[in-house]
Amino acid sequence: MIDTLELTQTVRRYRERCRTANRQPTFKGIALDLGVSGQTVANVVHGIFNGRRYTEHPHATRIIDNADFEILQSLFEERGIDNE
Fold it and tell me: Which has more pLDDT, 55 or 10?
């Protein structure tokens, strides 16, 4: 699982790079920095996996903790979350 501090720092750096380059954040862009798929980021941002809400009892392969979903979600709040 990605550590909260690591996730926070990665999102912060990515957000700053996007601002500097005058571009919008993308699921694929932050996914590359995190080493996960764009689909994983989309799932977390939307809070849904395979059409169902994430549960509080994560599968052993969960990459991002439920408590950290808001870190990624905040990256897309400014422009909305329809960003695939």
Answer: 10
